[in-house]
Structure formats: C-alpha cells, structure tokens
Amino acid sequence: MDGHQYASALKETTVPRRLGQWTWHCWSVRTVRINVLVACAIILILCFVMFSMKDESKSFASVLPMDIISSKTAENFRSGILRKWSQWTVFSQLKKNKKITDAVFNVKDKSKKFPGAIIIGVRKGGTGALLEFLRTHPRVVANKEEMHFFSDDQNKYAKGMQWYLSRMPESEPNQLTMEKTPKYFISEEAPARIHRMNSSVRLVLILRNPVDRVISDFTQIAVKLKTVNRKQNFTKLVLTSTGDVNANYCPVYVSTYHIHLARWLELFPLTQIHIVDGDRLISEPLQELRAVEKFLGLSPFFSEDVVYFNVSRGFYCMRRQVQDQDAYRPFCLDQTKGRQHPSVERWLLDKLEQYFIKHNEILFRMIGRRFKWS
Ligand SMILES: Nc1ncnc2c1ncn2[C@@H]1O[C@H](COP(=O)(O)OS(=O)(=O)O)[C@@H](OP(=O)(O)O)[C@H]1O
C-alpha cells in the first residue's frame, strides 16, 4: 500500500469514527442544554405555583368573614390558611364544612331584605310553631320577635320603612325573609300598609277550630291576668247577661274569621294567601309544612328527620342543625305554647259551636274550602 492508498484507507476508516464522535458530542451537549432548560422551566413553574398558592391563601384568608363564622372550626380554618395550607387542603376543608363555604362565598351578598312572606295570624292558631318550623329551612330567615309594625302597636309604623328594614335579619340572596305578627290579621290598617310595602308579598294565615281558639285565647289572657291577681271566669266572659254568645268578647271576635279575612281580600287575591289548617299543624305538621314550602317556592326540605313527635312534650318538635356543625339538636316550643285548657262544660261548647256555624259557612264560601270544625 503506497502512501496515497494508506491515506485514503485511513480517511475511510477514521472519518466516520470522528464524525460519530462529533455527532455524539453534539447530541450530548444538546441533551444537557435541553435538560437545563427543562429544569429551569420546572423551577419557574414551581415558583409560580408556590407564589400563586401563597396569594390565594392570603385572599381566602382576607375574605373569611370572621364576624359571621366565629366558631372554633372557622378559627382552625383561618389559621390553617394563614399557615399556607395547600390548595388541596383548603378545598377539601371547604367541601367538608358547608357553613364556611356559604359564608366565604356569600358574605358580600348578605343584606337585610323586606319580608317576602308574612305570617299574618291568627292569634293562638299555631303561628309560633309554624315560624319555628320554617326557620329550620335553610332558605328561610326570620325574626324571633313579633314585629307589630303594620298593626301600629306603640306607634311603630311612624318609625318608617327603613326602621322596619333595620329590624330584619340578614339574609343571602337566595333566602326568604319572613316575619310573623298574629295581630295583623285583625288589624284595620295592616292589609293596606302591607300592600303598600309589596303588593305581591305572600301571606300565610293559620286557621284553627274557632271554639278551641277562643278557649286557647282565654287561657292565655287568664294566665297573664293571674300574674296581677285577677281571676277570669270563662262562662261570664263568653256569654252576655241574656245568655247569648258575646260577640264583643275579644276572643270570640277574633275567631269570627270571615270579618277579618274580608279586609285582606279587598286588596290581595286569595291565591296570594295560603291558609294553613291549624288543627292539622298540631296533629300532622309534615303535610302542612310541605304545602307551605310549596306555596313559598322553597325547595323540599321537611321530612320525618326534621319533624318528629316528642312524647314527653306531647307535640311535634324539630331537629335543627347546630351552627357550623353536622350535628343536629332537638328543639321544642316552650311551655307558653300548648297550655292546658280549662275544662268547659258540654252545653257551653255546643252553644259556641252553634254560634260559629253561620260564621264558618261564610268563611268556607269565601275561601272555597271547608274545615271539619263542628
Ligand atoms: N308543635 C307545636 N308545639 C307547640 N304548640 C303548637 C305546636 N303546633 C301547634 N301548636 C299550637 O300553637 C298554639 C299557640 O299558637 P300561637 O303560636 O299562634 O300563639 S300566639 O298567638 O303567638 O300566642 C298552641 O295553642 P294552645 O294549645 O291552645 O296553647 C298550640 O296548640
């Protein structure tokens, strides 16, 4: 092999080898570069995620309404967020505690609203029980106190609508504000005033056997008067000196339902007034509550889990969710509801029943519905 041949042979064998080395070299340099780039990108993404998590934790913490959620759960939740819980922990905690979720997301929307529905009466009809049952519904907020605003007791109406609004509880946009004042039903002024506030407000009226209602009303008055040492004799009060039923005795007048309802029907259509059977509210409240729920456009909520019969109380009671917790506690109305009535002799009961027959008939015609009251 001469020098020329050797050189060309060498070229053939070494050039590809060098080329291979060069290619491998280039390849490994490129890989390292790519790796470095990928690593940088990962670091950047991690930094971004960490910063955004920190920011979100801060913003969650700032919107937590501590004035509304003041429970231990909420405190833990807030300190967890400030300790920079991971987003996952934040969301799983939110998911676990609906109260906090609601408060966090709705806090800015809470406001005072005029009532969208009012329980207008009748006194001793079961208005307290109905309102307490309804307050158990998550979409209902209501004042515990009777407002007596539209019936103008103690000149309240003169205080104005803004004063009335200020007395309302705060509610979320999807919650219905309610109030109950049994006096509204018999008030001369209440229908027009309520109509002026909102002509499409929904009205709920509980009617109970008028004779039972008279006795219940008498019992309440007697209990109150006994505290100032004045005894009441039912027979003397309910009958005139000639032995007729005393139409002017306030409990009798209140039980003459058609007189009062006529005033409301001058302004509100019957479809806007839901009448609850007060006797059935005592014996089978679930049925009545479901009907009210429907009338008020509320989601179905009442079931045997919420409403149960309490044997020792002798009345239906309710299970209410403990604030911020999944636990439920029983709640019954206090002893001022469901007082023992005095025994009334049969002849007097018959007389009262007889008296109310004609009035009840007028009412039944007015509402297109009958009750088994006699
Ligand atoms: N679940 C339950 N628990 C207790 N009491 C119940 C319940 N449901 C209806 N009732 C009947 O409600 C009657 C009192 O009616 P009111 O709340 O309208 O009275 S008031 O006008 O507000 O004073 C009260 O009347 P009396 O029994 O005559 O006292 C009760 O019979």
Distance between the termini: 136 Å
Instruction: Look at the structure and name the CATH superfamily of the largest domain.
Output: P-loop containing nucleotide triphosphate hydrolases
| Biggest β-sheet: strands ordered side by side in the sheet | 3-5-2-6-7
Could you please say which CATH topology of the largest domain applies here? Rossmann fold
CATH structural class of the largest domain: Alpha Beta
Q: What's the CATH architecture of the largest domain?
A: 3-Layer(aba) Sandwich
Counted beta strands: 10
- On the 0 to 100 scale, the average pLDDT is 84
Strand content: 5-15%
Helical content band? 40-55%
Helices and strands, in N-to-C order? HHHHEEHEHEEHEHHHHEHHEEEH
Assembly form of the protein: single chain
Count of helical regions = 14
Q: Output the radius of gyration.
A: 37 Å
Based on CA inertia axes, which overall geometry fits?
Answer: elongated
In terms of per-residue confidence, which ranges show pLDDT below 50 for 5 or more consecutive residues?
Answer: 10-20, 54-70
Instruction: Give the number of domains.
Output: 2
List of distinct ligands in this structure: 3'-phosphate-adenosine-5'-phosphate sulfate
Largest sheet: 5 strands, parallel
